[in-house]
Amino acid sequence: MLRILLAGFIAFLSLSSGTYARPSSYAVWAADSAIARGQGNGLSSGQPIVSYEHGEFQWGLRLLYEMTGNKTYLNYIKTGVDNIVFDNGTVHGSYTTGPTFLYLYDLTKQAKYKTAADIFRTQLNSHPRTAQGQFWHKLKYPNQGWLDGIYMESNATAWSDITSQFRLMYENTAQNATAPKQYRPLIPRGHSPEVWDRALGWYSMALVDVLDILPESSEGQTLVLNLLRTLVPHIRDAADKDSGAWQKTISRAVGTSMFVYSLLKAVRKGWISDADGSIVKAAKKAYNYAVNNWVVANADGTMGWLNTVVVGSLDTTGDFDYYVSQPTDLNDLKGLAAFLLASLEYEQL
Ligand SMILES: *[C@@H]1O[C@H](CO)[C@@H](O)[C@H](O)[C@H]1NC(C)=O
Ligand SMILES: *[C@@H]1O[C@H](CO)[C@@H](O)[C@H](O)[C@H]1NC(C)=O
Ligand SMILES: *[C@@H]1O[C@H](CO)[C@@H](O)[C@H](O)[C@H]1NC(C)=O
Ligand SMILES: *[C@@H]1O[C@H](CO)[C@@H](O)[C@H](O)[C@H]1NC(C)=O
To answer: Which atom of ligand 4 is nearest to the CA of 173?
Structure first.
């Protein structure tokens, strides 16, 4: 614990004493700034917290570590995970995303990370499903599958189950996200009165990330590729004509970052063809809008991230008025982490 506190203190000191020079990479800047604020370290007000936002940020740090080889990022992931995993592998908290555990197990071979992953996987076995086999989003939302939830699952031996989650999610929810707004409330099964872009953002990021690990030429890979190829042109076309961002379709900064990441990764990996360059063009325009409108340079050298809606939930009316009235926050981690991911892709162009 002392070591963790010290590390945080040293990072804080070096930033506040003005030795921190703003890096040219936005990905590095976003990561360093969040680390300097102590975000995504497995703690909330000093108490362990199991959080998908921390998992999303750690995914960004992992990519940054793999790209730069800089161990600062790997160590921060490890610190964050060690804050929630006891030495015997028991985890403080319940459901969440587990990939970080397996990643650290692969790197360190420490048994506690494997135990932690197994515990999470076992919890998933008893997690309720709909009659079609789709996971409920949470125990408190019977029979609801949230697009957001697709970002939170994994089991390397269960590809057909995993891909069927993507398919059911698509058929029951995402498919109709592009239907004309006046028809959406009439759709019998499926989604809430309004569709918000962050939910679709989670879904599209999950598509491009699961494609990294789906076995080549498998049925599941074909299915997920088809979903991606269907969805991406709709996402491209749904961008606001003036700004190029997606904030007008409901949410704000975070949905835009998520789409930039998904679109650029899909093209870079060759999962989707962009013969006329329109997908990359849409992503670049949106990314530049994000940089110019939602990134702020703080006096201490760090960057701040504006305009992320804190939470959107379905135990509400779930309609347009609800979503646009939700408060936004400065440096919201899920928004900042999505911007880190978008920056990693943009900077590889
Ligand atoms: C790694 O990243 C940290 C944070 O940006 C930086 O202070 C440090 O100099 C980097 N180390 C190397 C070896 O580049
Ligand atoms: C693991 O360690 C924690 C903390 O010491 C303890 O509370 C918990 O009961 C242990 N779990 C098992 C399964 O031993
Ligand atoms: C993987 O998923 C399958 C089906 O969902 C389940 O039966 C199996 O126990 C899981 N394997 C592990 C190692 O958790
Ligand atoms: C989605 O919309 C299409 C028509 O646009 C409709 O055929 C389909 O049944 C809808 N899906 C759901 C799950 O409501």
So the answer is: 13
